[in-house]
Design goal:
9 helices; single chain; three-stranded antiparallel sheet; 199 residues; two-stranded antiparallel ribbon; alpha+beta
Length: 199
């Protein structure tokens, strides 16, 4: 695979200045998870007073994010395990973790599914772009933070909320191709190939 100019430049910097160091190379590692480059800003937003009501949410969210496997759905472990990994120990640790999980759901960053006696059997991570946009619409996000977030998205070429919605709408378009049992059958809007005329 051909390396880009930026990759070759970073490779030279690494060889020149950090030849003996064991450096972070996430793309080559097993057990790593993908995250948006806007993550530091998102974590700072989660800990802001306007959003968290003085409950620090960033570590609980980061712990959840580290467990998803690219589809946004987590099959949860025990509450005690999640609480400890997020930094909450002792007799109050689990209750503190639960309070923050409820707050994360309340502000729209996660969805929680109870199954039987397990209050946190499955957790879904809402796309941060959507969650942040909803908070912005409710006027809970400051102009300064929003400007920094928007600028970082432009820099990293991450889709905006409007671009994501348009992309999803385009993907959801369907065309009727016939009927089945009196009802129209639909498929994804795939360009039709023209039949070749026989000579």
């Amino acid at each position: 695979m051909t390396k880009s100019g930026a990759e070759l430049r970073r490779e030279k910097i690494r060889e020149q200045f950090f030849p003996k160091d064991d450096l972070w190379t996430s793309l080559k590692e097993v057990g790593w998870f993908p995250a948006p480059r806007t993550l530091p800003l998102i974590l700072s937003l989660l800990d802001s007073k306007a959003i968290s009501d003085s409950k620090s949410l960033s570590l609980v969210f980061l712990e959840l994010l580290s467990r998803h496997r690219s589809d946004g759905v987590i099959e949860m472990s025990t509450e005690a395990d999640h609480a400890f990994a997020a930094g909450y120990e002792g007799s109050r640790g689990r209750r503190t973790w639960q309070e923050r999980m409820k707050k994360l759901e309340e502000i729209g960053f996660i969805r929680i599914q109870k199954v039987g006696n397990e209050a946190y059997k499955y957790v879904a991570i809402v796309h941060p772009t959507t969650a942040v946009q909803k908070l912005r619409d409710k006027k809970l996000v400051s102009d300064d933070w929003w400007s920094a977030y928007f600028a970082r998205k432009l820099e990293t070429k991450e889709l905006t909320h409007d671009q994501r919605m348009k992309k999803q709408a385009d993907a959801a378009k369907v065309v009727p191709i016939g009927t089945l049992g009196g009802r129209k059958k639909k498929v994804a809007n795939i360009p039709l190939l023209k039949k070749r005329r026989s000579k």
